[in-house]
Write a structure and sequence with these properties.
It contains five helices and 16 strands. The protein has 385 residues and is of the alpha+beta class. The strands form four sheets. It has a four-stranded antiparallel beta sheet with strand order 1-10-11-14, with no helix packed on it. A four-stranded antiparallel beta sheet has the order 6-3-2-9, with no helix packed on it. The chain is elongated, with a radius of gyration of 29 Å.
Length: 385
Amino acid sequence: MFHLDLLLWWVLVLLVLVLVVMLVCMCWTRHTMIATRYRRERYGTLCRREERFWSFGIQPGGSSDSLPLLRNGRSNSLGTLGGSGGGGSVASASINSQDTADTAREGPTSLAFWQARSISLMEMYTEQGEHSEKCGDINFGLDYDFSSETLKLRVIQGRDLAARDLNGLSDPYVRITLLPDKKHRLETKIKRRTLNPRWNETFYFEGFPVNKLQTRVLHLHVYDYDRFSKDDSIGEVHLPLCQIDFTSKPQFWRKLHPATKEKLGELLVSLTYFPSNNTLTIGVLKARNLKAKDINGKSDPYVKVWLMFGEKKVEKKKTPVYKCNLNPTFNQNFEFDVPWEQIRDCSLDISVMDFDTIGRNELIGRLVLGARNSSGPQETNPWAE
């Protein structure tokens, strides 16, 4: 009985000690938080750089030149900028499965709806106004099999194509997509050293009922093949399929136009540096008009930020994924430990990604902020200030 009482006494003593230790830890944590807040409030006006906001047009890989969107100040407004590229402009966000289902229930009177929808798609993928550059013409035909719901495209020939090689000729081929789907594309064979190629190739798009075709825009993009460098764009043409009478098996001669500029979107960020505790803070606030990467005309964007010293990646942070959103609001702050003497040697590599459940995540656009390594002159401004 004596041993049992002694054991209970020691258990009670241990419980009291544990409670005391927990109480001390809680008091110490609270004291540390109050002290940190006091230091920031006291030294913020002396040591902290003014927090500023910048809006940048994100670029494909950060290689193209950047134009100013917002020089400085506290404004949250966004400018307009798009990197140059060979595809269409911002992909449509106007078509989705719910719209398709609702329209299918409306019956035959929904044709006008599909025509307006497909024309709006065309306007998003083409520039307004006349093109002064002559790119040539392309000849193609369409045929639709109603029983198998298959669209047949015959790419016949090109005429008076623009020369892209030093010898005054081109090595043309045609890349084919049914917008807004850019992931699935077909290509003709390459015709060597000619400005008047004859392809005579037929392509089949299976599983496309008429109401689905009404939402698509046929995109034919003629390229000049280069063995040792990126293929040059010769010209492109967009054809809204809602305007086509598939019972007549039409053939077309269409003028090619210079490739439209590709708009990847805009990203609003803020930068703050605390020399007192060597903390570099980047705020990823929001994005606007991001390029659509998915077949539904949307993207699932998130932002990935790398702290870099020279070419070496040191630390990575990333935001959550925002499903089916081309204008996400992130409101995420990321802190990096950067000593004052190394602040001009570091840079922030910011990538806007499209999350894919199946397959590899796709890059929407990228920019680099830094004093030396940046993706454009405006991306150097935060360090200069």
